[in-house]
Amino acid sequence: MRISQLEDKRVALWGWGREGRAAYHAIRARLPGLPLTLFCSAEEAADARGIGDTALSVETEASAGRLSAFDVVVKSPGISPYRPEAMVAMHEGTRFVGGTALWFAERPDARAVCVTGTKGKSTTTALLAHLLRAGGHRTALCGNIGLPLLELLDAEAEFWAIELSSYQTRDVAGAGVRPHIAVVTNIFPEHLDWHGSEQRYVDDKLALLTEAKPRIAVLNAVDRRLAALTLPDSGVRWFGREDGWHLRGDVLCRGDDEIFDTALIPLPGRHNRGNLCAVLTAIEALGLDAAALAPHAASFRPLPHRLQTIGTREGITYVNDSISTTPHASLAALDVFRGRRVALLVGGHDRGLDWSDFAKAMRTQAPVAIITMGQNGGRIHALLEGLAREGGFVLREAGDLSEAVALARQALAGEGVVLMSPGAPSFGAYRDYTERGRHFAQLAGFSPDAITAIPGLGIAP
Q1: Are 247 and 363 within one domain?
Q2: Residue 96: strand, helix, or coil
Q3: Is 68:89 a contact under the CB 8 Å cutoff?
Q4: Cross-strand partners of 13
Q5: Per-residue pLDDT tens over the stretch 296-344
Q6: CA angle at residue 371 from 370 to 373, to 5 degrees?
Q7: What pairs with residue 343 in β-bridges?
Q8: What CA–CA distance (Å, rounded) separates 394 from 255?
Q9: CATH number for the domain including 359?
Q10: Is the pTM of this model over 0.90?
């Protein structure tokens, strides 16, 4: 749906975060007099009313009845369409769209590379933009990574590196536009509270492939769900296979050719270096010389809150992996520091994810200490108690992050790594993973402002 098609329709906005504000400004730029109703929190209402837009009505309760009164509701990504009030309104004929759908409808000819996956999508998207720019291509880095697409509605770029969360992937299909390339790094259970079930999460994530039908799909050959897909409407390029871009140990290879040792590039964790293979496969799919651009990965700046080494104080190194929201992510983070003395901080908002595989892994790869915290901290602690006694690792339960950091320091006794890789979202205690990461940096004795900027957002060169 193009924005111009909203004219003469009853239109509401739902959400007033950055995505919601971007949608408002994009609609106003095209339809300055269109009556709009905004549903938002009481805290946000004052800010919205402060705009002074006489054609904007602000309400703080998005009930099924009120949502059903509109032809179209432009919904922010964090609001689940599976909420009961939304489901009722859809049944009554209300159409829900997101900012991603509006952007793709407005920009159907954009050379967009959409990147999603449970783990690694932000680093993959940023690395893609970095290498394209290194080749002299004007490239946009945007989407879920921190810059809504609608903020760049009228901007021009040769290529668009777009990160999409599972909250946004169906929007691409909903726009009726086939993206140029879709990259999927992996699929693990995540965001079950938003999607309602593991199967719905997988279906929503894969809608970028199965429903949006990209011209080219770039897929991880070692992910069982991706490997089982049949995509008759897309050309498929695999990474992680020996006939394409893959890792042989730490060595980056293209088929039989060895390119360079990835241990020398600033990508923490083998999984992130594996995502370099996804990026190079996508670059080849764009018709560019990926092998020539690959060495520029050496100048890539890692993103904040993703296995980010903040610094060392009194013999202890602090690593911020606040973006980690699944047990699998915590295991991947722990593997990066194999052989080091590690105190691992896990726990947060309880989405009902199964931690049993994590517990099994602790039989062979347990760190010096595990500190549990947050809403699901008690559940994780109970799962690990017997293993801690058998395996000889320290297990403590903390009331909050401050106590968790203190207990981790105590367990390490002046030598090792405090690794915050929670495996759970931050909701409740913090607004988002960024705020949690900033607090961790502060507790470690470092400036929060020095660790948070995402390099390269927007359009360059």
Answers
A1: no
A2: strand
A3: yes
A4: 38, 74
A5: 999 998 889 989 999 999 999 999 999 998 899 999 999 999 999 999 9
A6: 140
A7: 369, 418
A8: 44
A9: 3.90.190.20
A10: no
